[in-house]
Amino acid sequence: MSSVLDLASLEIFCTVAAEHSVTKAARRLERVQSNVTTRIQQLEEELDTALFLRDGKRMTLTPDGERLLAYAEQLLSLSEEARSASSVAARSNAGRSADSRGAHGLGPLLAHG
């Protein structure tokens, strides 16, 4: 079975935690409510713990949910940081052609060929 601890699931989890509602989280994420509910249930099944207390339509984090939230926020933040760093690196290399980047590292080898 593949892990449901992917970034999309963690983003859904964090949004439900922030909104205290699957309905509001689904609206904010532009997803259908059933998808959000399913992802939360999959997380709870995989981790074998309840992440939310459900009081009608209001969702409140359990102590295990609070712990996961801290990790999920860190992972999402690191993911965004990595995406930003990659974007900056791509822009700085945009002016150089693939040939010049490739030849640069192979210069000594190509000089002897």
What do these coordinates show?
A hairpin with a 2-residue loop joins strand 1 (52-55) and strand 2 (58-61). Helix 1 (7-19) crosses helix 2 (22-29) and helix 1 crosses helix 3. The radius of gyration is 22 Å and the shape is elongated. With 113 residues, it is mainly α. The model is unreliable at 103-113 (pLDDT under 50). It has a single domain, classed as Arc Repressor Mutant, subunit A (Orthogonal Bundle), CATH 1.10.10. The longest helix has 31 residues, at 63-93. It is built from 5 helices and 2 strands, in the order H-H-H-E-E-H-H. The termini are far apart. The chain is 72% helix and 7% strand. It has a two-stranded antiparallel sheet.
Q: What's the arrangement of secondary structure elements?
A:
Blueprint: H1 7-19, H2 22-29, H3 33-47, E1 52-55, E2 58-61, H4 63-93, H5 98-111
Antiparallel strand pairs: 1-2
Strand content: 5-15%
CATH homologous superfamily (4th level) name? Winged helix-like DNA-binding domain superfamily/Winged helix DNA-binding domain
Q: Could you name the CATH class?
A: Mainly Alpha
CATH topology: Arc Repressor Mutant, subunit A
Shape descriptor reads elongated
User: What's the CATH architecture name?
Assistant: Orthogonal Bundle
| SSE order | HHHEEHH
Let me know the number of strands.
2
Measured as a percent range, the helix fraction is over 70%
- Count of separate structural domains: 1
The strands making up the biggest β-sheet line up spatially as: 1-2
Overall average pLDDT? 84
Q: Write down the Rg.
A: 22 Å
